[in-house]
Design a protein that fits this description.
By secondary structure, this protein is largely without helices or strands. The chain has one domain. Helices cover 8% and strands 10% of the residues. The protein contains one helix and three strands, in the order βββα. It has a three-stranded antiparallel β-sheet, with no helix packed on it. Strand 1 and strand 2 form a beta hairpin. The longest helix is centred in the last third of the chain and has 5 residues.
Length: 60
């Protein structure tokens, strides 16, 4: 994984993972593996309620 703005490259090591903020400040790319398979897991966590962000109620 390469992080553009941080000028940082993370070498893959079996059994490890990379966690980074999901914002433009951590633009990144994953490189093709030279050998074996590569698995990607993506998830986002929202710390602000949608009703606070959009000023409307969410249908139940």
């Amino acid at each position: 994984t390469e992080f553009y703005y941080q000028n940082l490259k993370s070498k893959p090591k079996q059994g490890t993972l990379v966690i980074a903020p999901a914002d433009f400040t951590h633009t990144h790319r994953g490189n093709m593996p030279i050998s074996n398979d590569k698995y990607i897991f993506t998830s986002w966590i929202m710390f602000q309620r949608a009703t606070d962000m959009y000023q409307q109620s969410i249908p139940k």
